[in-house]
Design goal:
five-stranded antiparallel β-sheet, 211 residues, single chain, alpha/beta
């Protein structure tokens, strides 16, 4: 899948890393050319804004992830109306502007800024709710995020009851926006986000353990 991401901030960069790690082609665009230059080599991203049209014309998915709602709306409108992008996802920075982010502006999916990364990826691509965020190839260590939903088989169960792949541990559980040091007795709830570290497990194995 070809993905065009507008906005090379922390969110846009992390989305690009996740999508390219999953085998997609991502192009990261930002008005700050120095920021884009600094990202080259970290993910398959980044040409200058002057090449945005070429990227938009062949993109299967456009993600407007800048920190300005007015920019995200214009990006979405052009992507859908001018370049006929099949799917457009836009970040909503200010909740008061959420009503603007609809099909009139070319937005297929509006994502509030507080939405966890894993949910944004799921909304954008239809991917599973378990994604690899980063793989440190030199150390052979992977960082994987998974989200507990009402459908998850791990919901309501103590963390210690979850059988994890060998060499995998839960680094933190984010609950209600706050990171928590996990304990075996901690019961998982819908809405919890887990960050796991593993030297061998793949996303599918983590998904099988929790989902």
């Amino acid at each position: 899948m070809n993905v065009l991401i507008a906005g090379a901030g922390r969110l846009g960069t992390r989305v690009a890393q996740v999508l390219t790690a999953a085998g997609n082609e991502a192009t990261l665009v930002d008005v700050d050319e120095e920021r884009v230059d600094a990202l080259r080599g970290q993910c398959d991203a980044g040409e200058a804004a002057v090449q945005a049209r070429a990227g938009a014309a062949r993109a299967d998915l456009v993600i407007a992830a800048t920190g300005r709602d007015e920019d995200n709306l214009v990006i979405s409108y052009l992507a859908k109306r001018h370049f006929a992008a099949p799917r457009v996802v836009a970040r909503v920075n200010d909740d008061e502007n959420a009503w603007l982010f609809d099909h009139h502006w070319g937005v297929d999916i509006a994502v509030p800024t507080a939405t966890p990364l894993v949910s944004l990826i799921e909304e954008a691509t239809g991917a599973a709710d378990t994604v690899a965020l980063l793989r440190l190839s030199t150390a052979g260590v992977g960082i994987i995020e998974t989200a507990i939903t009402a459908r998850s088989k791990a919901a309501g169960r103590p963390l210690g009851d979850i059988r994890l792949p060998e060499g995998t541990l839960v680094a933190t559980v984010v609950r209600d926006g706050n990171p928590t040091a996990p304990s075996p007795s901690m019961r998982l709830r819908p809405g919890d986000e887990l960050l796991l570290v593993s030297h061998s497990a793949e996303e599918q194995e983590i998904h099988a353990a929790f989902q």
